[in-house]
Amino acid sequence: MPDDQLSLTFAALADPTRRAILARLAAGEATVNELAEPFDMSLQAVSKHLKVLERAGLISRGRDAQWRPCRLETAPLETASEWIDRYRERWTDRFDRLDEEIRKLRRTQEEHDHG
Q1: CB 22 within 8 A of CB 58
Q2: pTM for this structure?
Q3: At a CB cut-off of 8 Å and minimum separation 6, what does 53 contact?
Q4: N or C: more exposed end of the chain, with fewer CB within 10 A?
């Protein structure tokens, strides 16, 4: 598995269970048991998902005696969003230019057909 931050973030987000866990944590801290509740999988399987999220820096775990709440960490999500936005601007610009070229070709074709 790659170890650069962006790759870790996208790899963690690739799994629907991990995305659901992050969505739950967006509402506030939760224990592993609370996070596992809606899933039809073992506590061990949920813990593995949490380790992936923690390695990617998307969650952190508290150290409050027996209660170790998980919390969402947004910095990696913000970095991924900035990366996507940067490329979205490029793609949008390219599509706009392509649309303009298509319009020009259509006008030329219409002039040719009617002229």
Answers
A1: yes
A2: 0.74
A3: 12, 18, 21, 22, 59
A4: C
CATH dotted code for 1-73: 1.10.10.10
**Look-up of token digits 């599509």:** 95
Place of tokens 């939760």: 30
H/E element, 23: helix 16-25
User: Radius of gyration over alpha carbons of the chain, in Å?
Assistant: 23
Q: What's the pLDDT at 56? A: 96
pLDDT of residue 3: 62
- Please provide the DSSP assignment of 45-90 as one string: HHHHHHHHHHHTTSEEE--BTTB--EEE--HHHHHHHHHHHHHHHH
DSSP 4: S
